[in-house]
Write a structure and sequence with these properties.
The complex is a heterotrimer of chains A (about 300), B (about 150) and C (about 180).
Chain A: H1 5-8, E1 9-16, E2 19-26, H2 30-44, H3 60-71, H4 77-84, H5 87-99, H6 112-133, H7 139-149, H8 152-161, H9 177-195, H10 197-207, H11 226-234, E3 238-246, E4 254-261, E5 264-271, H12 274-290, H13 304-310
Helix pairs in contact in A: 4-9, 6-7, 6-9, 6-13, 8-9, 9-10, 11-12
Chain B: H1 5-11, H2 17-27, H3 34-37, H4 39-78, H5 83-92, H6 99-108, H7 110-126
Helix pairs in contact in B: 2-4, 4-6, 5-7, 6-7
Chain C: H1 3-12, E1 17-21, H2 27-39, E2 55-59, H3 70-73, E3 75-79, E4 86-90, H4 91-97, H5 101-109, H6 116-121, E5 124-126, H7 134-137, E6 140-143, H8 156-161
The chains are: A alpha+beta (about 300), B mainly alpha (about 150), C alpha/beta (about 180).
Chain lengths: ~300, ~150, ~180
C-alpha cells in the first residue's frame, strides 16, 4: 500500500473578507479505504517475501560488477558467477527446461568445488593469524577459536553484511546460514583465482578475522578441568588460599581464592563457593599464561607485520 | 421527495475526526483500561502524560547529575579523599573532567580514577590547603609533580 | 554470559557485612554513615534501582551518647490511632524500654520515605551490647570507622592513685 500523501490531502481554502486561510485535510474516503485494505491484507495472511531479483529492474550483471567494486576488489566475472551459483539453482533450472520439453544441457557450474577450496584457504589464513598473535595459546584452543570464526553463524553474518544474500542463485529463500557461508567461501576462492592469494588473505583479515574484535574469547579457551590443566602446565606444587570471604552463612556468600606457587600469585578468582572460586583462579592463572586476560590489547588488525606474516 | 443536499453538506464538514483521534490514540497505546481506547478519557490522560514528560525532561538531567555526584563521591571516598576536596584538587590541577566522565571512570577504570584522586590530593598538599588537615587518611606518596601541575 | 562474567557480577554485587561499634557515638551522625552503607552509596556503581546495599551490624547501641541535655529534651511521639492515643516518650525513657530503638529510629528517619526504605532497614541489625550470635559473627568481614574516639574512662583506683597537688579535707563542702 503505497499512497503518496499528496493525493490523500485536499487543500481547502476559506476566505474571510480580505484574508485567506488555507487548511489541509485528508479526504473522507481515505480512512475507510485504508481500513478495508488492511483487513484484506490481514485476511490474506503472511505473504512470501520477495527476493530482490524478483523485481523488474534487477540487473544481475551490473549487480555482480558493482559487488566487486563496492569491496574494492577486481573479480573475474565468470568466476564470481560460478561462486554465486548453487547446486539447487541448477537443478531447478533443469527441471523448468524438462517441463517445457527442452533437453537440459546447462553449461553452468555450481560452487561446491569453490567453497571447499575457499574454506581451505580461509582456514589457513585464520590459523596463521591466530598462531602469530596468540603464540602461547595451546593448539586445541587455537583450533576452537578457528572453528568459531569458520562457523556458519559467523560466516553467514559476514556474507549477509557484504550483500551476498541478494546475489546468490539458489532455489530456497530466505537463505539458510549454510548457503550464505558456502557462498562467502566460494567468493573468497574466486578472489584467490582473480587477484592472487596475497590480496585474498588481506580480504580474509579484513572481513573474517575482524569478527574477533570485541569478542570474549575466554569461553573458547576454557579447559575441562582447569586445576589439572594448570598443574600439568606449571607443576603440581601450586596451592590455593582464600583471600577474601564475605557473608559466609548466607545465600549471597562470596569467596575470592588465590592460587600461589612458591609464594607467587598465579591467578585469583571469585565465586559463590570456594571450589568455584578456586576453579576460576586456575582459569585466571591459565589465561594470564596464555595472554588472553580481559585487559589484553585488541587484536592487531592493521599491523603490517601481521599482514606480512599471514601472506603465503 | 427527499432532499439530501443539506444533510450531506453537514456530514462532509470539517476535517476527518478519525485522524484527529488517531493522533491521541497513538500516544495512549501503552495505557491500560478505558484510558487506552475511549477517546474522551484517553485525551485527558495523554495531555497529563505530555505535561509530565515536559517536566521530566528537566528532572531527568538533575537526577542523572545527582547520581553521578553520588558515584564520584563513593569512588573518591574509597581512596580517602572527600568529594569537595577531590573536585577542588582536580580543578586546580587543570583536569577538567565532568561528573559523568568521572563516574564512568570510577566504575570502569578504577585504577585511572585512583590516579586522579592521587593527583588531586598531591596538588592540594602542595598548595597547603587547610581543609586537608581534617582528612585522616594517609596521603599518596607516589606522585612526583616537579611543579608541572602549576597552571 | 561467560563463566568469568558470571562470577565477576557475583563478586561486584556481593553483600559485605560491616560492623559498627556505637559506643560513645552520636546516633544521629552515625545514622548518616550507616545509611550510606545500607543503601550502597559507598560503591561507585550505586543506582537507586539496583540491589547493591550492604548489611550493617551495630553493636553497643546501649552505650550511645546524646549531645547536651538531649536525653531529657528529645521526645519521641507515638499515636495508637484511637482517640486520646497520643503518647510522648522522652529519649531516656525510650532507651530504658528498648536500648536499640533510638538508633533504629535515627537510621530510619535519615532515609528518604519511599517503598525501598523498609527493605533497606531489614539489612540493619542492632545489638544492645557487644555480644553477637555466632552465625551473624561469621558473616562479618568489614568494619566501619567510628566517628569519634571513645574517651578513656578512669577506673576508681586509677582516680584514687592519680597524683594530686593537695588533698581536700574529708568534711569539705564546696560553697
Amino acid at each position: 500500500m503505497s499512497f503518496s500523501m499528496k493525493f490523500l490531502v485536499k487543500p481547502l481554502v476559506i476566505s474571510y473578507g480580505n484574508s485567506i486561510t488555507v487548511h489541509r485535510q485528508i479526504h473522507r474516503w481515505v480512512a475507510p479505504t485504508l481500513k478495508a485494505l488492511n483487513n484484506r491484507k490481514r485476511e490474506m495472511g503472511p505473504q512470501p517475501i520477495n527476493r530482490r531479483s524478483d523485481y523488474l529492474e534487477w540487473n544481475y550483471k551490473a549487480e555482480i560488477y558493482s559487488f566487486g567494486k563496492r569491496l574494492g576488489e577486481d573479480f573475474k566475472e565468470d568466476l564470481l558467477r560460478e561462486a554465486f551459483t548453487e547446486k539447487s539453482f541448477i537443478n531447478l533450472e533443469a527441471e523448468k527446461l524438462m517441463k517445457v520439453g527442452v533437453d537440459p544441457q546447462l553449461d553452468m557450474k555450481d560452487n561446491a568445488n569453490f567453497s571447499v577450496e575457499g574454506e581451505k584457504f580461509i582456514s589457513q589464513c585464520v590459523l596463521k593469524y591466530l598462531v602469530s598473535v596468540l603464540p602461547s595459546l595451546p593448539s586445541e584452543h587455537i583450533e576452537s577459536i578457528h572453528n568459531f570464526l569458520l562457523s556458519d553463524e559467523k560466516l553467514s553474518t559476514v556474507s549477509k553484511n557484504i550483500g551476498i544474500d541478494d546475489l546468490v542463485l539458489t532455489a530456497e529463500y530466505p537463505l539458510e546460514q549454510s548457503t550464505l557461508s558456502r557462498s562467502l567461501k566460494s567468493v573468497i576462492h574466486a578472489l584467490v583465482l582473480s587477484s592472487g592469494e596475497e590480496r585474498a588473505s588481506k580480504f580474509v583479515t579484513d572481513f573474517i578475522i575482524t569478527q574477533l574484535c570485541g569478542e570474549d574469547i575466554t569461553p573458547l579457551c576454557t579447559p575441562e578441568n582447569p586445576i589439572e590443566k594448570l598443574k600439568s602446565t606449571v607443576g603440581a606444587n601450586i596451592e590455593s588460599r582464600i583471600i577474601v570471604e564475605s557473608a559466609k552463612n548466607t545465600l549471597l556468600a562470596n569467596y575470592q581464592v588465590g592460587i600461589y606457587q612458591e609464594k607467587n600469585l598465579l591467578g585469583r578468582g571469585c565465586g559463590e563457593s570456594p571450589w568455584i572460586a578456586e576453579e576460576m583462579a586456575a582459569l585466571d592463572a591459565l589465561w594470564r599464561l596464555w595472554g588472553i586476560t580481559s585487559n589484553k590489547k585488541p587484536f592487531p588488525i592493521k599491523s603490517q607485520k601481521i599482514v606480512n606474516s599471514v601472506n603465503m | 421527495m427527499v432532499f439530501q443536499t443539506a444533510a450531506l453538506f453537514i456530514r462532509s464538514r470539517g476535517p476527518d475526526a478519525f485522524w484527529r483521534k488517531r493522533r491521541i490514540f497513538k500516544l495512549s497505546a501503552h495505557f491500560t483500561g478505558r484510558k487506552r481506547n475511549c477517546y474522551s478519557i484517553a485525551v485527558r490522560y495523554v495531555h497529563r502524560a505530555l505535561a509530565y514528560a515536559t517536566q521530566s525532561r528537566k528532572l531527568k538531567k538533575e537526577d542523572m547529575a545527582n547520581l553521578w555526584t553520588t558515584r564520584v563521591a563513593a569512588g573518591c571516598e574509597e581512596h580517602g579523599l572527600p568529594y569537595p576536596l577531590f573536585k577542588d584538587g582536580l580543578e586546580k590541577s587543570n583536569i577538567l573532567l565532568n561528573r559523568k566522565v568521572l563516574a564512568d571512570l570510577a566504575i570502569w577504570e578504577p585504577y585511572s580514577f585512583k590516579a586522579l584522586t592521587q593527583i588531586a590530593w598531591t596538588k592540594l598538599r602542595e598548595e597547603d590547603d587547610p581543609e586537608l588537615n581534617e582528612v585522616q587518611e594517609t596521603p599518596p606518596s607516589n606522585v612526583i609533580t616537579r611543579g608541572l601541575l602549576d597552571k | 554470559m561467560s563463566a568469568l562474567g558470571r562470577v565477576r557480577q557475583w563478586n561486584a554485587f556481593s553483600q559485605v557485612w560491616h560492623l559498627f561499634d556505637a559506643k560513645w557515638q552520636n546516633p544521629f551522625q552515625s545514622a548518616a554513615v550507616i545509611t550510606k552503607y545500607l543503601m550502597g552509596k559507598h560503591k561507585p556503581f550505586y543506582h537507586p534501582f539496583a540491589n547493591c546495599g550492604d548489611v550493617v551490624v551495630v553493636i553497643n547501641s546501649r552505650h550511645i551518647a546524646l549531645l547536651g541535655d538531649e536525653w531529657k529534651k528529645r521526645v519521641y511521639f507515638h499515636h495508637t490511632g484511637y482517640p486520646g492515643g497520643a503518647s510522648w516518650t522522652l529519649a531516656w525513657e525510650l532507651h530504658e524500654k528498648s536500648p536499640t530503638m533510638i538508633l533504629e529510629k535515627a537510621v530510619y528517619s535519615s532515609m528518604k520515605g519511599n517503598l525501598q526504605r523498609r527493605h533497606t532497614m531489614k539489612r540493619l541489625i542492632i545489638y544492645p551490647d557487644d555480644i553477637i550470635p555466632e552465625d551473624i559473627h561469621t558473616n562479618i568481614s568489614s568494619q566501619i570507622k567510628q566517628l569519634r574516639k571513645v574517651p578513656k574512662v578512669l577506673e576508681s583506683d586509677e582516680v584514687n592513685n592519680f597524683p594530686r597537688i593537695f588533698k581536700l579535707p574529708v568534711d569539705y563542702v564546696p560553697s
